[in-house]
Amino acid sequence: MQAAVVDRYGAPDVVRVADVPRPTARADEVLVRVKAVAVTSADARIRGARFPKGFAPFARLAFGVFRPRRRILGSSFSGEVEEAGSRVRGFTPGDQVCGMTGLRLGAHAEYVSVPVKKIAPKPPDVSHDDAAGLLFGGTTALYFLRDKASVTPGMSVLVNGASGAIGTNAVQLAKHFGATVTGVTSGSNADLVTKLGADQVIDYTHVDLGDITEKFDAVLDTVGNLSIASGRRLLNPRGVLLLAVAGLSETLRARGNVRTGTTPERVEDFRLLLQLLANGDISVVHDQVDGLAGVVEAYRTVDSGHKVGNLVIRL
User: Fold this and answer.
1) Is the pTM here over 0.85, yes or no?
2) Number of Cα atoms under 13 Å in the Cβ half of residue 34
3) Which of 151, 180, 287, 296 is the most buried (most CB within 10 A)?
4) Is residue 151 part of a domain?
5) Is 126 exposed, middle or buried (0-12, 13-18, 19+ CB in 10 A)?
6) Which is nearest to 270 in space by CA: 262, 278, 258, 280?
7) In a 3-state reduction of DSSP, which class is residue 230?
């Protein structure tokens, strides 16, 4: 099979498309023929060894000290079950599924083997492109807004980085939960963020976050350019600061009204997000790249910092 292979850390052009052995499904796994897979900021951080400040030594131990231990990146995918392991129940060849591979990665390929506990059925009304583009940003937004901040009707939420993979989902989910939403993005993306449900849009190219006097019940930073001090200045007395991107220092100091953490990949969350998408309660913002040959250009777009929504490779 063909896969996007990373033999060393570096710029996007270290990625190459190569023929590699097709994986096989173990007893508790399914082998999925990939139809669409996201290229995320997490993939780009691993490929470039650009880990959050302070985490580099630990990340190198996890992903490879001198070169990537997992040569095929990619986590959020959608596709069709090719074969099911002997202990798998509920999924058979031909089933349309989507999921996330976690630290195993491996989804930037024509086939990927995945533990059955990491996949969910893809609703018929949801495209493979949308399913693959939904899960990375959607699960993160859901985790922080619902689990870390308990967003409920009447709350006010600020989303910093409202046009990215996490931000586009966060704006919609916060609105779905009944909050009043303010999105921070560039002026060129203001219309998009408004269409997603933001009640107010702040253009960061004209307004510095430090100059905002309004206070919020929850501030979600998806970019990593808010310090704990600057984020707290935006909070109501009982507000919470949510750091989806945090360095080691911020992680160690996150307590009280500052919350961070690693998003769990739970099938029940996949199912909820997919149902919201199938019902039309949320939508997926993404660009498509046809074929693995476009993976280098996809990485260049992610590295530019100007990616809007998600990038999905269609196989």
Assistant:
1) yes
2) 34
3) 151
4) yes
5) buried
6) 278
7) helix
Residues 6+ apart with CB under 8 A from 38: 74, 75, 76, 77, 132, 133, 135, 136, 165, 286, 310, 311, 312, 313
Q: What is the CATH number of the domain that holds 60?
A: 3.90.180.10
Structural domain includes residue 132 = no
Query: Tell me, what amino acid is at 221?
Result: D
Q: Are 220 and 203 in contact (CB under 8 A)?
A: no
The answer as to whether 129 is a domain residue is no
Query: Each residue of 140-173: pLDDT tens digit?
Result: 999 999 999 999 999 999 999 999 999 999 999 9
What is the β-pairing status of strands 96-100 and 111-115? Answer: unpaired
Specify whether the CB–CB gap between 219 and 239 falls below 8 A: yes
How does pLDDT run across 194-250, given as a tens digit for each residue?
999 999 999 999 998 888 899 999 999 999 899 999 999 999 999 999 999 988 888
Cα–Cα distance, 128 to 145 (Å, whole number): 25
Report d(CA 220, CA 226) in Å as an integer. Answer: 10
Q: Which domain holds residue 156?
A: 137-259
